[in-house]
Amino acid sequence: MSTEAMTYESAVERLEQIIARLDSNQAGLRETLELCGEGKSLIEFAAGELEAVGQGLEELRLDELIKRLEADTPPAG
Fold first, then answer.
1. In a domain? residue 77
2. Distance between CA 58 and CA 52 in Å, rounded?
3. Which residue has the higher pLDDT, 65 or 75?
């Protein structure tokens, strides 16, 4: 699955599937390598999504702080 059409939730769900398959000890060497590569890509995608959400929350907090400061500042004059 391409990460372009993926959501954070679907990435985490796929990671859980990969972990379960690896934990089953039924994957051969080549499959294990492929699953690890896919898992790495999914982790990078999920980390990027979390970072983007964190930045969005930080921006919201800054916007809220600016509004509070502007509301508390008496008009010039």
1. no
2. 10
3. 65
